[in-house]
Amino acid sequence: MNQILIFVAAIGLASAAPSIDIQGRYNETILDIHPTIGGRIVGGDPANIEDLPYQVALLRNGGQICGGVIASSRVIITAAHCVVPSVIPQVTALNIRSGSSLHNSGGLRIAVESIIYHSQYANLDYDIAVLHLAEDAIQSGVPAAAAALPTANTVFEVGTLGVVSGWGTTSENGAGSVQLRRVDVPVVSEAVCRSAYGSVINERTLCAGFTEGGRDACQGDSGGPYVVNGLLAGVVSFGAGCARPGYPGVYAAIVPFRQWLTENGGV
C-alpha cells in the first residue's frame, strides 16, 4: 500500500503543488492527501448510528481500517484502496460492523465473502469497490439501513452541504475515534478542486470542503459515505493532509459508477 501511494505522490500529482503528497485515508498510508485507508473526521461532532444507519466499519483482523456504506443487505460500497490485495491479501481477514456507533463493539460483525474492486483502479483513480457479505447487515432490531443511491443523471450542485462520517482521526496524523463522528462540508467545483490537485481530479471524483479548511474527512475515514440531499454522492478517497485550507477532500463519485455498481453489486 505504501508503494502504491508513493507512486501516486510522485506521478499522479505531478501537476499539483509540489509540497503536497497524496494520501489515501487509511491508517497505514504515508501520503498527505486525506480520506483513503484509515480514518478521521476533523472539525466534526460525535454521531449516532441511528442517524447514519448506512455507515459501516471495515475491520481487518478485528482492527478498523476504513469505512463503508450499506448498499443493500449483503452489499457494501467502499473505496478500492481499502481492499486491494496489498491491503487485504486474504478475504478471510476482512469483516464489517454494521448498526453500531462504535467500531469495536455492538451491532453486527459480519464476514466478507468476496471483494470486487474496479478493474481500472490505479493511482487512486476508479477508487471504488463492492463487498459481498456472508450474512445480512440489515437485521431486525439493529439500526442499519441501505443508503439511497443517486441515478446516473443526478447532479450535486456546488455549494450544497453534505455529511461525511467515520471513525478516522480527528486531526491530521492524530488518533482515531472509537465513537462515530460526522461533519458537514459543501460540494466544491471540479475546476476549483483541480486547481489544488491537478489532473488527478476528473469526472470520477467529487470534491467537498471549505476554502478556509478546518472541517474534513481524514485517515481511517476512507471508503466511508459522503451523503448530499439524502443520496450517496461519494465515498472518501484521498486528500492533502486533513482539513487544510485550499485542499478539499476528494471522493470517488457514485454517479459515474452507477452501471458498474449495478453490474457488480446488484444495486
Oligomer type: single chain
How many strands, which pairing sense, and closed or not: the largest β-sheet? 6 strands, antiparallel, barrel
Q: How much of the sequence is in beta strands?
A: 25-35%
Bin the helical content. Answer: 10-25%
Distance between the termini: 29 Å
Radius of gyration: 16 Å
Count all strands and give the number.
Answer: 16
Overall average pLDDT: 84
Number of helices: 3
Order of strands, main sheet, comes to 10-11-12-16-15-14
Poorly predicted regions = 1-21, 26-40
Order of helices and strands: HEEEEEEEEEEEHEEEEEH
Shape: globular
Structural class: mainly beta
Quick structural summary:
By secondary structure, this protein is mainly β. Helix content is 10%, strand content 33%.
